[in-house]
Amino acid sequence: VNHLDLLTQHACLSNDGSRMYFTICNYVTGAEIQCDIYTSKKDKSGEWSERLKLPDNINASGSTSTHPAIMKNPYDGKHYLLFVSDRKGGKGRLDIWMSEILGDNLYGTPKNLEDINTFDDDVTPFYHSDSNKLYFSTKGRKGLGEFDIYQARFTGSEWKDISNIGYPINGPTNDWYPFIMDG
C-alpha cells in the first residue's frame, strides 16, 4: 500500500486524553474507500505510540469501520467505543455500533444501535456526557436537507427521545460531525 493513498481522519480522544482513536482509509477504486479504526496511546512523556489497528470484531473483514467516538456510560461506569460500519447485521447502509472497551485493544461484541439506525446512512456519532445525549447525523429520517443532526438520550438500556435538533444548525445541505464544547 502506498502511504500517499491513505486517508487519516475522524479522530477522537478517550475521556482522560491518553488514547486516540482514528480512521485510516484506503482507496479500493477511484470512488470507493475502505476504512478501519486504529488507536494510539500517549506515554508519560507525551509521545504517541505507533498506530495499532483495532481487532477484527471492530474492523470486520470486507466492511468499513469509521467515525470512532467514546462514551462513558453513566449507569454502569464502563467505557464504550461508538463507531460507524456497513458490516453485516445492520439496519441500513452505514449504521452506528457500540462496543464495550474491555482492555488494551480488547473490545466486546459490537451492538447495533437499532433504536437510532435507519435504512440509510447513520454517521458521525458524538456522545456528550454532561447531557447524556448522543448526537449523530442521518439521511434516513425526514429532515431539512440530506444529512441532518439528531440527538437521542440514553436510558441505560436504550436510546429515547430521538429528535432533529432543527434550524439553524440543520439546513438544506449536509450537516455532519456534531460536537459540543463545554465551558
Write the layout of secondary structure elements.
Elements: E1 6-13, E2 19-27, E3 33-41, E4 52-53, E5 65-72, E6 79-85, E7 95-103, E8 106-107, E9 111-112, E10 122-128, E11 133-138, E12 148-154, E13 159-164
Antiparallel strand pairs: 1-2, 2-3, 3-4, 5-6, 6-7, 7-8, 7-9, 10-11, 11-12, 12-13
- Inertia-based shape: globular
* Count of helix runs: 0
Considering DSSP H and I runs of 4 or more, what fraction of the residues is helical? Answer: under 10%
**Content-based structural category:** mainly beta
Cα(first) to Cα(last) distance is 43 Å
Mean of pLDDT: 92
Integer-rounded radius of gyration: 16 Å
Number of strands: 13
Order of helices and strands: EEEEEEEEEEEEE
Strand content: 35-45%
What's the story with the biggest beta sheet? 5 strands, antiparallel
Low-confidence stretches at least 5 residues in length (pLDDT < 50)? Answer: none
